């Protein structure tokens, strides 16, 4: 049986280990999942988060689900796998990579059906490992493609965390930055803190410092002023789901950044693998937006910062219309408007 390890995930035989992203940057702790229910909880509780990382995690969750009924009859196994897929797909609604990875695992089950049980499980393990390993290669390719729009000396604004932690490794938007740095370009990254969950402050700042990439942390409400002062030449963010017309769902606050970029004449790029593109979703209107606990707004950690009982609204994502997007950087190249044509072409 194979062993796989990246910054975000480690797979060995009967368990999936992941860095606990809730605890970063003050503690580097790990959580182990030994069954599909623990994987469901890890995704829902954001121990692991970020669209491609959620997809790969769910794939291993599916594999763990199959191992739970190793000796059961064919009927019981099939029933169980339907339940496992449904449960994992209920963990978070917006990132389409979750559904993409589960479909891929289900296809692996169907196409290897008939093999003796041990061989069937091995084929599922190979499928999950392929998803994880491919993700890293895809990020490196999209990183190289994206680096062509980064110039030496650029100031780059990013939002949330589209880094190694949001993927299996290397990152999407941060993958573009890594590739630019690998090419010898000197860049300065400005990371929005990303209220309310603070992925920018906690994860992006941690990751970039760890990688020796120049980073300055700003509060979300400083982005406009920082652009006005001329510090930003480019905006690079990730995505959780991209509709067929190029509308892109990403962490709440991305839409505001895109409007600010347009006002200041700054190019705004999305960096995401094609597994984030959902051609079955016609436009951003159809993308389900997760509403998360209001405690994320009323508290920072255990510290209450708002009056008891105040009404809150906490959509975890917003949708940036394609009209505000300069280009969508993928492993197949950079899609440009009209996106319904350019994105579709990348699947041919
Ligand atoms: C590369 S994953 C998508 C990202 O761009 C990221 O910004 C994001 O929105 C992740 O959301 P999260 O709620 O942390 O899972």
TrEMBL record:
Active site: residue positions: 240 (proton donor)
Pathway note: Amino-acid biosynthesis; L-methionine biosynthesis via salvage pathway; L-methionine from S-methyl-5-thio-alpha-D-ribose 1-phosphate: step 1/6
Sorted UniProt keywords: Amino-acid biosynthesis, Isomerase, Methionine biosynthesis
Binding site for substrate: 49-51, 92, 199, 250-251
InterPro entries noted in UniProt: IF-2B-related (IPR000649), IF-M1Pi (IPR005251), IF_2B-like_C (IPR042529), Initiation_fac_2B_a/b/d (IPR011559), M1Pi_N (IPR027363), NagB/RpiA_transferase-like (IPR037171)
Feature type site, description Transition state stabilizer: 160
Record field: catalytic activity: 5-(methylsulfanyl)-alpha-D-ribose 1-phosphate = 5-(methylsulfanyl)-D-ribulose 1-phosphate
A Pfam family matched in the record: IF-2B
Record's function text: Catalyzes the interconversion of methylthioribose-1-phosphate (MTR-1-P) into methylthioribulose-1-phosphate (MTRu-1-P).
Protein name stated in the entry: Methylthioribose-1-phosphate isomerase
């Amino acid at each position: 049986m194979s062993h796989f390890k990246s910054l975000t995930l480690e797979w060995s035989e009967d368990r999936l280990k992941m860095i606990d992203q809730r605890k970063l940057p003050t503690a580097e702790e790990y959580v182990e999942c030994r069954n599909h229910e623990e994987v469901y909880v890890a995704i829902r509780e954001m121990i692991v988060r970020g669209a491609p990382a959620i997809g790969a995690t769910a794939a291993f969750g599916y594999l763990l689900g199959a191992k739970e009924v190793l000796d059961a009859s064919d009927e019981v196994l099939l029933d169980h796998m339907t339940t496992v897929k449904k449960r994992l797909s209920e963990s978070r609604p917006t990132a389409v990579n979750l559904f993409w990875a589960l479909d891929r695992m289900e296809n692996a089950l169907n196409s290897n059906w008939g093999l003796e049980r041990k061989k069937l499980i091995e084929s599922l393990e190979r499928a999950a490992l392929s998803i994880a390993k491919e993700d890293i290669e895809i990020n490196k390719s999209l990183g190289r493609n994206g680096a062509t729009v980064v110039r030496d000396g650029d100031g780059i604004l990013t939002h949330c965390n589209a880094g190694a932690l949001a993927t299996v490794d290397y990152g999407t938007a941060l993958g573009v930055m890594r590739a630019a740095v690998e090419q010898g370009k000197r860049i300065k990254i400005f990371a929005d803190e990303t209220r309310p969950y603070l992925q920018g402050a906690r994860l992006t700042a941690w990751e970039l410092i760890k990688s020796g990439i120049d980073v300055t942390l700003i509060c979300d409400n400083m982005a406009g002023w920082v652009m006005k002062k001329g510090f930003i030449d480019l905006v690079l963010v990730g995505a959780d789901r991209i509709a067929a017309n190029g509308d892109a769902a990403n962490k709440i606050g991305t839409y505001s950044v895109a409007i600010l970029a347009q006002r200041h004449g700054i190019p705004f790029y999305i960096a995401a693998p094609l597994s984030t593109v959902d051609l079955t979703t016609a436009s951003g209107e159809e993308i389900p937006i997760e509403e998360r606990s209001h405690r994320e707004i009323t508290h920072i950690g255990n510290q209450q910062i708002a009056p008891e009982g105040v009404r809150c609204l906490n959509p975890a994502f917003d949708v940036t219309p394609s009209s505000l997007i300069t280009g969508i950087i993928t492993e197949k190249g950079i899609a440009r408007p009209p996106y319904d044509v350019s994105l579709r072409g990348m699947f041919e």
